[in-house]
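Please check the following for our workbook:

***
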Amino acid sequence: MRDSMTPALIRRAALRLRRVMPLLPALQAPAGSPAAAEAVRFGEQSLSYGRLAAAADALAARIAEAGRVAVWATATPETVVAVVAALRAGVPAVPLNPKTGERELAHIVSDSAPSTVLAAAGDVLPPALAALVRVDVDTTAAPRSPAASSAGFPEPSPESPALIVYTSGTTGPPKGAILPRRAVAATLDALEDAWQWTGDDVLVHALPLFHVHGLILGVLGPLRRGGSVRHLGRFSTEGVARELESGGTMLFGVPTMYHRIAEALDGPAASGGLAKALAGARLLVSGSAALPVHDHERIAAATGRRVIERYGMTETLMNTGVRADGEARPGTVGAPLRGVELRLVEEDGSALTDPASIGEIQVRGPNLFTGYLNRPDATAAALTADGWFRTGDMATLDPDGYVRIVGRKATDLIKSGGYKIGAGEIENALLEHPGVREAAVTGEPDPDLGERIVAWVVPADPGSPPTADELAGHVAAQLSPHKRPRTVRYLDALPRNDLGKIMKRSLHG
């Protein structure tokens, strides 16, 4: 009887439940996901759950004693097999960006010290990986029976490292964030709750597989649910339309991708397959950077569907998200996800007294990393004594708890004339001007104002760009005079990284 259970019995029952809830349950006993069901597809290459499980288990047996493994993370089925194999074997995986420069790659390899690198058979690896044992990933293992035993790979502790993902290194060499299995499971289950994510969903995306967005959300997310993922390889609006029209239910992308979708919807595609395909999707999700309000509105006008946003970091995985049954409010990233605590603080770390003003986001919860590899100093600096992670992101809170991110503390918070100003709202205002194709805003030292607002603009018509006075007047009319740019600089294109984020540290006069 329930009333006769002691606390000790309850704890033991909870531990037994934990042991039978693996990180990727559909790959161990695909109940509800038959072995023949498609797990992943890359173009013409498809792996069923049975084939993925067999290939991953065969590889897991080879790397079980490897310590750590590096994964040459190309957008291929081999990367999926490699990461799943490492998770099955309980061996931490270090995803490597194939476009990383030689010096940065050498630092990552030296810092993480993997014994082995997993790669597709045809991959040519750089010299920085020459000292590692190479294991070619074979995706052709015979499908395993759904009832086949997986007792050879007991589920590791929830606190054991699943992945070591390296940050972008904007303030020095990249740091390896140690992501435990607990954090991966917590984030994916919180998104299941927020997005009503099920095994019936088919996720479409073209994100890189060396980062949280594309790998953890975009691959492990569907696999944890028992659903499927279709990776486009290279992003194209034609590929998006094709996959959504043929059964895709969810689309993940970064703002650059949604900007290209919005541009295509402004042309002949507006009355064609792309608009219809997007309108038929259950969920359109943007992340990794803020999606400009202008692109939100263009997509909504053409399709009748709103893109929703979420907010996360390498160290925290996902913190907030707009719910599937919630209001898709452009300019916000939703409320904290289940299990995540979030607060805004002043520069001195004290609680923000006015939630409508700008403060730094701090978060706490099971989604957090366990620390930076080999960097106890950086770990201590990132966490407060009571376990809050200092994100460095600045935001305001709407009355109902929706978070509005204004930018990074180091590059997007501008202190001008006694005001604290977020670069994001000025960028959105600039993008509403018909003469502006792309825009970024930074602050530069000013002897009078402290910092002056600088707009970096890619004009819609390079031959006839809007004048600086015209843009300043436009922003002043939309926002307020103290938020107008004092300087405008024109570019052919904004510098962006692989995820489409603008690299503001590359912008200087």
